[in-house]
Amino acid sequence: MEAFQQMLSQAGWAQGMQPWALSGLAMLFAGGTILGGVAVGAMFFIWTERKVAGYIQSRYGPMYVGHFHGVLQSIADGVKLLLKEDIWPTDADKFLFRIAPLLVFTGAFLSFVVLPFGPDFVGASLDIGLFYAFATSSLVVMGVIAAGWGSNNKWSLYGAMRGAAQVISYEIPLGLAVLPVVMSVGSLNLGTLAEAQRGWLWSWHLFNPIFFVSFVIYLISSLAEVNRVPFDLPETESELVSGYHTEYTGMKFAFFFLGEYADMFVVSAIAVSVFLGGWYTGIPAVDAFVPAPLVFILKSVFLVFVQIWLRWTLPRLRVDQLMYVCWKVFIPLSLANLFIYGLIRSMVG
Amino acid sequence: MQGLFFYLFGTVAVISALLTITRRDPVTSAFWLIFCFLNVAALFATLSAHLIAVLQILIYAGAIMVFFLFVTMFLGKEKRSAERPNPVVFGVGVLTVGAIAGGLMRLVRSGSHDFGEVGPEHGTIEAVSRLLLSNYLFAFELTGLLLTVAMVGAVLLARREAKGARATRTPAGAPSGPAGVEEVADA
Amino acid sequence: MNFTWSDAAYFGPEAVMGLTFLLCVLGDLVTRGRRHVVPFGTLLVGTAISLVLALLHPPVSSHAILGQMVVVDGFAHFFRLLFLGITFVTALLSWSSREIMGRDREHQGEFYALAAMLCFGMMVMAESADIVMLALSLEAVSITSYILAGFARFSFRSSEAALKYVLWGAVSSAVMLYGLSLFYGLTGATSYEGIRAGLSGGQGGMALLVAILFVMAGIGYKISAVPFHFWTPDVYEGAPAPVAAIFASGPKIAGFALMIRFFYVALVQDDSQGTLALLDDVQWPWVLAIISAATMTLGNMAAIRQNSVRRLLAYSSIAHVGYMLMGFVVLSANGLAAVLFYLFVYAIMTIGAFLVVVALNNRVSGEEIDDYAGLGFREPLVAAMMFLFLISLTGLPPTAGFIGKFYLFAAAGEAGLWWLAILGVLNSVVSLYYYMRIARAMYFTPPELSGRVGLAQAHLILLVVLAVPTLVLGVFWSPLKEFADQSLRMLLGGG
Known about the structure:
CATH topology of the domain at 1-82 in chain B: Four Helix Bundle (Hemerythrin (Met), subunit A)
Distance between the termini of chain C: 24 Å
Largest sheet of chain B: none
CATH architecture of the domain at 1-82 in chain B: Up-down Bundle
CATH superfamily of the domain at 1-82 in chain B: NADH-ubiquinone/plastoquinone oxidoreductase chain 6, subunit NuoJ
Number of strands of chain B: 0
Low-confidence stretches of chain B: 161-187
Number of helices of chain C: 20
Largest interface: B-C, 33 and 48 residues
Helix content of chain B: over 70%
Radius of gyration of chain B: 24 Å
Oligomer: heterotrimer
Strand content of chain C: under 5%
């Protein structure tokens, strides 16, 4: 935001504006940039998902819109969703039904503020960035619950309850998994965490055995956090129609869709900045001339691709298996991991 | 700018708090309460108390209210309309709030309780954790014990359900083991 | 920072109890909940070690330890011994209780773990010197109590009791926390000393009154003073009898300890030698005097109409809180010493009376007064002990209850609160009526069944152990009185 403010104050047409108006304008610009980025990025991911799904299932996927492998398919989808009738279930709770998609999308959108795309490309370099990102993701749960309850539909409700239980449970291993890294760097600022991995490839946190365990736990838990296969119990189209967003149509549905893909990017980006060296390529010489945001985004996109890849490869877990994995495997494992790391640190110093 | 945000978030927080206690549907009330928490968190953020702001969202809005909604969902739709408040209770409540508000107003106006400026370190995660692990270490550990006992209690009290469910699911002719025999006998 | 190993020497007994809780849980886990003697033994051994540690190192001066969060002094020492004694006795009396065993004896182990935690929490309550610790220790005791209240898993009444307890507790805790936050807002300090320093300006006014009332709501709930007493009869009746015995003694006494330390350290100063004065112009002793009068009157009036022995004892315990508050409001060392003395005596006689209920509960189906008919003929020893405890609860000589009440009334009179003292005496007369209803049933009603009831040996021995001090303290009370006086010296004298 500071960067925007600086840019504005240098621009000719903004000369002579009041400082409060200037900072307000800067806020609008910053927000708009992130919003635009999220929307375009999510559209890209939706297209990617369909193409990858097609490839894995030995078919083409979208081919016609935009002539080249259906690149404009997502835009067509968006137009279609915009033009569709906005259906309200008769007995829906109007208030909750309306705010649910907004909450889901806002939750995902707010996290982008702290993502460090580069040393200088970060919305707000908060000291508690990592913590903040986890907190905003809890808004998504709110949206899921509001959708499930507001739809007044059994399947939606089941989906919402599963979603709430799952996200709350998996937030614990997710948080515990990153703690050893936080302990080693001594900061929760995502930028600082990425900065600590400067240098050659092996200085990435991924290549430390303890952090590697953390990374695996984080990666799997983050799949549950964003309700992706094999943890997509809140949606399970084979049993719950479409879970919490069964009753949604048109733009409201589009918001859920955008939110989901934005969330996928957020968890990937956090993984990149905590474990995968942030905006560093792993070769110091290359770092000098490759733009940092490009590296960061490419790495994140790769992790999003991994999520898509897993979705079309793995079968879905059962609800009790899901809870078992969380409470009886991941939480003890991440606690043990944290404990061992603390022990090592206190002995080595 | 900061004053503007203070009044914006403060007003929304108060309005959503009022809506929380006047809505009759518990789920709607809960959502207004969440809005209230979010605005309080925003107020903390405008005071540069980022840690408290995030804790407010993570714990109150994120964890506690989700559990609250979860339980409400379990109870189902039929039982969810609340009764109208008793006018006497309502009156006492209004009076108490008035007394507290008046007393606090007077205190603030008198200016006799000036806490002074705090440094930039104040309220950061490092400062809070340092305090938590030095001065407040015992309180911190006691909280750990408190949570342990709560967990023991939750398991103790909740097992009744699990047991009943298991006993009914086990077919009478095919007990699953020594424990199963007892359960069937109990049922 | 302010945290050293030398603190551990003063904190030994508490640390041992905290460890005992964890070991009980662990022991139960390792034995898969089958060998209840393991947690039971752990609890007894832990309590004994803690007691020995406490007796070996009585504090000679006031020590603020663990980052000034808790204070170990003579006052804490007094309550420490009391709580450890209560835990030891109630653990013994619960061993063969039908209600604790439950249908399958599956969860007996947890009971001992919870009892250890309760004792730990109560000891910390009596030592808290900071509102953070006040809230935390109160919550530790409350949460443990909720679980204990609902301990009889198959009993509908037990679950109901637990639910009522939780709902009341949650509301009053919330109110109290708000009151504590007001204290922090008024003074900018969390320690009692800091609050005292912050209030010495004397500008609290309305906000201070509200803060005190709100804190009183939380503490009043814990000690079951009117108007926060509604949960008491239902919980005492619904919870298993050994648990009710703990509730009637332990948390209530801990509530008193917490209240005395908070009010007398944070809100009272001694001007010159021996005279205590209010810090502020807020007249909270008057509010508490009214609460005291209401509590004893309401408790006694309600007790008259009860037919269930347990409900009767519950209301009588409310009435006793009223008597003890009398000693609290007079703002003098004598008054506090009377409260301490009475708390000690009250613990013995209440546990004794509940022990009779526990012992009979295993054998006799009901707990109505009529079910005790003819007990004097069937079990002369038990009936005699019950009679003794009832006399002591009424406050008749030559029992400890008489001495305790005498000190309380004398303290009230000394402070010029004659109306309160007279009300107390009148209430004691009323209480004689309903206590004697039990005695009449035991001795003047012919039994429906003949022959001995057949009670557990352990219960009989324990009864005698409790009966002895009830009588002895009625005759030689001065050592206990001196102990109470001495315990207070560090609290009030040290400033």
